[in-house]
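Kindly go through the entry underneath: sequence plus fold tokens. Please state briefly how this chain folds according to its tokens.
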Amino acid sequence: MSRLRMPALAAALLASLLTAGWVAPTRLVDDLSQKDLNGQEKPQDSLYVLCSFYPKPGACERVYQQAMRDNSIASQAVRAEYTGYVRYLHGTGLLTEADKQYLRTNNIRLPRELSPANQAGLHNVIHDASLNAQSRPMAVNNFLSRAVQAEIYCVLNSCTDAGQAPGVAGV
């Protein structure tokens, strides 16, 4: 599988966060929740961190659902990941010529290599009817940043070994 070429500084920063214990990518879905102070199920912080970097299939679907109801500081990054990236990862297809023209017109640069799932997601962002002309470029850049973030995470954590490319989560 082809990989995005990322600046060494970004990869080194993410690697230091991962090795410092900020991300525990080996958590199992069975270990997904614990009770909060109100006795309600709450995803563990390690899964919040994992799902704010990469939409791991089978692990993050419930985390995204919980984060939408959770008002804690820890859930904010997970909600942002879902609303700015994961929710667009449905469908298939490549970028159309109209999509590419939109990107050129708005001076938005594509990463050299973008997975088919991320291309379909980018198409969905560009055509999101809920975005106005002023907020659309920011949403597109946000999506692309998160797509690159997911790719870096996968490079450092070998999440594609199981045949799962960034952006293939079924949420």
User: Anything to note?
Assistant: The helical segments are 8-19, 45-53, 61-69, 74-84, 97-105, 116-126, 136-157. Residues 37 and 73 are 15 Å apart (CA to CA). The first strand starts at residue 33 and ends at 35.
